TrEMBL record:
Organism: Streptomyces aurantiogriseus
GO biological process, one term: siderophore biosynthetic process
A GO term from the CC aspect: cytoplasm
Gene Ontology MF: a single term: oxidoreductase activity, acting on the CH-NH2 group of donors, NAD or NADP as acceptor
Record-linked Pfam families: OCD_Mu_crystall
Protein name: 2,3-diaminopropionate biosynthesis protein SbnB
Domain of life: Bacteria
Length: 362
């Protein structure tokens, strides 16, 4: 049974905190996708700022973000479920885990590829206190990170006016929404997808979004890349399928969100920025393949946090590729933001009696 009780904590003392305050168990809440969307819609600028602050906290070491765990299935090789456990300090101060599935065949059945939940755990007691629908949170933090990177990585070059979307599913749509809401406008918007239906659907979305840029659907990858000075990769490719460095001779900014599209030769001919070095150099990403090919990491310029802090500059005479592995700390920060806003609105749905055995000896 659920109720809309505001988030009063259940006054059951389980231990004493360092400050001498008794620890209490918060009621467990469930936050639906509709509630998540209601909180996040129209708040793109705040979310980009939150993601920037979270990268800075992570860069300063005020987080724990172990490697993601990939659950794969011998009988369903194209599918996977990934666990992203994390802990973040600073003003957010929460632990938790995102559990996100990728089942690409869903798309043929008319439902999104990815589905997810996010569990938030109390910093003091470890008790889970919320389960949030998280496909929207995940897409939102990914798009906010991409919009932040597009801005910071293009600051020393002329601001891109021609964007190209390589792979046009849900993530591409969120990235376009975040770019537009962060003040980007484009003279030209290129679209390329292996699926004509996806390209047509994305074109339709763009037209409805009120964009003034000219929209071109490209049948071939080369035309899209050569015609774009900001390229967004959001495919589901498992192995590199773009391998000619000359396609990038105009030195575009590349948001390599899908991580496995570019052959190592292109990585090696570019300035490479990642979100986290240890995370990104694993699981067969293009930077990981480049490391395996060369035996070193010299091709990495730094992290986005290095760029934000001014420790690293981005030369203009080469393409710049941002490869974000996707950090659990970002999901936690956005998830906690959503939780706090739902609490503030008085619409938190609490599951009464979710934690039941709370007295040690009954
Ligand atoms: N780095 C991160 O933090 C992060 C976060 C979320 C999602 N992602 C990645 O973003 C990608 C896109 O996610 P989505 O939910 O939009 O997927 P989706 O299935 O909705 O869309 C992917 C699209 O890419 C197209 N495509 C596949 N291979 C292609 C190719 N070789 N060339 C051109 N088009 C191709 C498909 O036809 C499809 O339209 C996934 O790889 C996902 O893992 C990354």
């Amino acid at each position: 049974m659920t109720s809309n009780r505001p988030t009063t904590t259940v006054p059951i003392a389980v231990s004493a905190s360092a400050a001498g305050e008794p620890h209490t168990v918060r009621p467990f809440a469930v936050i639906s996708g509709a509630q998540v969307q209601q909180v996040l819609e129209g708040r793109e600028k705040q979310i980009v700022e939150l993601v920037e602050a979270t990268y800075r906290l992570h860069g300063a070491g005020d987080s724990v973000n172990p490697p993601s765990y990939f659950l794969r299935f011998p009988d369903r090789p194209s599918s996977r479920i990934i666990a992203l456990p994390a802990s973040i300090g600073g003003p957010v101060r929460v632990d938790g885990v995102k559990w996100i599935s990728s089942f690409p065949e869903n798309v043929q059945a008319g439902i999104p590829r990815a589905s997810a939940v996010l569990i938030l755990n109390d910093h003091d007691t470890g008790y889970p206190f919320a389960c949030l629908e998280s496909s929207i949170i995940s897409a939102t933090r990914t798009a906010a990170s991409a919009a932040l990177a597009a801005d910071r990585l293009s600051r020393d070059r002329s601001r891109p006016t021609r964007v190209g979307f390589f792979g046009t599913g849900l993530i591409a749509r969120y990235i376009h929404t975040f770019l537009a809401a962060s003040g980007w406008s484009f003279d030209e918007i290129g679209v390329h997808d292996l699926s004509a239906d996806s390209a047509a659907g994305f074109r339709c979305y763009l037209e409805q979004s009120g964009t003034t840029g000219r929209i071109t659907v490209h049948d071939n990858a080369e035309g899209l890349i050569r015609g774009s000075d900001l390229v967004v990769f959001a495919t589901i490719a498992g192995e590199p399928h773009v391998s000619d460095p000359t396609w990038f001779s105009h030195h575009p900014v590349v948001l390599h969100v899908s991580l496995r599209d570019l052959a190592p030769e292109i990585i090696l001919a570019s300035t490479n920025i990642v979100d986290d070095v240890e995370h990104c150099l694993q699981a067969g990403t293009s930077p990981h393949l480049a490391e395996q090919l060369t035996g070193n990491r010299h091709f990495l310029r730094g992290t986005l946090d290095d760029v934000l802090a001014g420790r690293v500059t981005v030369p203009t005479g080469r393409p710049v590729v941002f490869s974000p592995f996707g950090l659990g700390v970002l999901d936690l920060a956005v998830g906690k933001y959503v939780y706090d806003e739902v609490v503030r609105s008085g619409e938190l749905h609490v599951i009464d009696g979710f934690f039941h055995e709370l007295r040690r000896y009954g």
